[in-house]
Amino acid sequence: MVNCFYQELPVHQRGDAVSSMVYEANARVRDPVYGCVGAISSLQQQIDGLQTQLALAQAEVVHLRVYSNKGSAGGSGGTCPFR
């Protein structure tokens, strides 16, 4: 079955197909229940967490810029390190 699938692929895609099958087989050995889906889920959770951290950092930058602009408009002479 795998051999038939392999032979139907264009030659330039066969190496990637074999690599993918090996990865999936190894993932199934490491995690018999979820296999590579478990790895994908874990990576997606990491992405979600990092996107949250990025959004918080971007909001903080905006806050600091607004705060800095208010300070310089008030004549305090403060400079914004983000400009």
Automatic annotation (TrEMBL):
InterPro entries: LOB. Residues 1-61 form the LOB domain. It comes from the Eukaryota. It holds the Pfam family LOB. Belongs to the LOB domain-containing protein family. This is LOB DOMAIN-CONTAINING PROTEIN 3. It comes from Salix viminalis.
